[in-house]
Amino acid sequence: MRFFQSVLLTFAAIGIYAVFTNGSIYLNPAGERLNDESPIAIAKQLPIPASITLFGETIPLNDPDVRERLDYELNLIVYSKQYQTIDIMKSMHRFFPYMDQVLQQNGVPTDFKYLAVAESSLESTATSPKGAKGVWQFMEATAKEFNLEMNDEVDERSHTEKATEAASKYLKNAFRKFNNWTLAAASYNCGMTGLQNQIDAQQEWNYYNLFLNPETARYIYRIIAYKQVLENPGLYGYKFSMPDRYNNYNLRETMVTSAGDLPTFARTNGTNYKMLRTLNPWLRKNSLIGNGSKAYIIKLPN
Questions:
Q1: Domain containing 274: what range?
Q2: What pLDDT is stored for residue 13 in this prediction?
Q3: Considering 224, 244, 264, which residue would you say is the last residue of a domain?
Q4: Which of 11, 94, 221, 247 is deepest in the core (most CB within 10 A)?
Q5: Strand 25-27 to strand 18-20: parallel, antiparallel, or no bridges (unpaired)?
Q6: Average pLDDT value over all residues in the chain
Q7: Which is nearest to 41 in space by CA: 49, 29, 58, 23?
Q8: Average pLDDT in the 183-210 region?
Q9: Based on the domain organization, do 289 and 172 belong to the same domain?
Q10: Distance set, CA 154 to CA 151, 157, 234, 249 (Å)
Q11: Residue 143, pLDDT score
Q12: What value, to the nearest 5°, has the Cα angle with vertex 27 and ends 26 and 33?
């Protein structure tokens, strides 16, 4: 069934092409240049390397089922979600350096930044139908467990730095439980208890051999596919120069226990309310009164 899904997805992608700003260059997903008159870019089979690792663990690509499932997710990312993938490539440099630093400090493989990509496409305000929020898509109960503040003024699930710290702690705890990073990642989707129940019921500790709910069954393959495409963009038809990336913000920080009316605070600090909320997506309303004791670091443009 998954094979036929991949075939249908590939044929549906015929006619999709990527347009890059530098001289209107048209590329098909194989990375081949087309002239400006070419009406379509023909979809082709996407390459899968002979070996791939994720979190330092080898993916069993010799298993036909594993290879088919990865092929499906690659096709989905490159063809069906092409423009979303381009947006991720243009903005990921705003997130990855800090994520790498925090993950390393917590003893977590830096490949876990691709879990955040799979969760939210690096959208700080992303909210799922089930109520998960932020780049790391924390549910409220899990966010409270890891001391992320949530009230009518702030929601630290959308605070990328604090949420990255919390996600690192969760993953480290999950690794202690499962002694395997792939299982730790799977538990991020279905919960440690839910995953342990399936391991016990099936008497199987290998993620790739577990029969899981549809979302968790696809979860690791989506992470692998994003890693493969984002680390090898040219191989999949994406070519960027430095000017094509979204600019990093030139920032300064100020610490407050209360900021009062935020539009007024923004003007007093040489910016506007729109930019203040853009740089601080964890703010939820137009005021920050606080409780008088907790300090908040607010980002401002230089």
A1: 251-301
A2: 45
A3: 244
A4: 221
A5: antiparallel
A6: 89
A7: 29
A8: 98
A9: no
A10: 6, 9, 40, 22
A11: 97
A12: 85
